[in-house]
Amino acid sequence: MQKFLQSFSYIFHPLFIPAYVTVFYFFIAHNFFYQNEIYLVFVQVLILTVLLPISLYYLLRSLGLIKSKIMLSKKERRLPLAFYALLLFMLIKHSFSTFMIPELSNYFTGLLISTLLALTLVLFNHKASLHMMAIASFFIFAVSISVYYHIQLISTVAFLTVCMGSVASSRIQAKAHTLKELASGTLIGIVPQIGLWYFWLLPSL
Q: Where are the bilayer-spanning segments (predicted)?
């Protein structure tokens, strides 16, 4: 059971969630895009939100700026979060200016805000759960897409609800976070996504 719960921390690692969200979105809305557009956007997301952050992590470890393997301390989180926020800004500014995808653009804008909030909390010596921030943002995005396209995604929403609980349990079991840190991570993942509904979801209703 312990290994099963731990697997959720790896499968739903914060760096993987944006790629999952992109695949999920194009699975729903693929009829509105050419295949080459889908591939191009996904590759850009993969490079900027997965490959480059992983490369930076190993670079910082080789330079001795990061010593822990998995659970970064509050101080060690500052530079990776700042770099990740910069990469998200580049993705929003350049990738989604080429292809008009308001749904994904607003999701990543919300994720950028969440990342900046997490960075702000770290600067004030508070560590929010990035795992919960990421999976919570995915959950809200799935609900948003269900409403936006007027389709029932009950099974997807239910699955993500179970995943959120499992990720939280795995982080508690690994003693990586307190309940307060899990709650703050969930909150900063949810609030920006809901706040951006005003700009893209509510006008479509």
A: 12-33, 39-60, 81-101, 107-125, 132-151, 181-200
The number of residues in the chain equals 205
pTM of the complete model beyond 0.90 = yes
- Separation of alpha carbons 196 and 181, rounded Å: 24
Q: Determine the Cα–Cα distance for residues 139 and 73; give it in Å rounded to an integer.
A: 27
Mean pLDDT of 127-142: 96
DSSP state of 162: H
Residue 129 tokens read as: 């759960």
Q: Quote the radius of gyration of the chain (alpha carbons, Å).
A: 17
- The whole-angstrom separation of Cα 45 and Cα 38 is 11
Integer Cα distance of 32 and 192 in angstroms: 26
Place of tokens 């005003």: 198
> pLDDT tens across 152-169, in order?
999 999 999 999 999 999
157, exposed or middle or buried, with CB in 10 Å at 0-12, 13-18, 19+?
Answer: middle
5-21 confidence digits (pLDDT tens)? 678 888 999 999 999 99
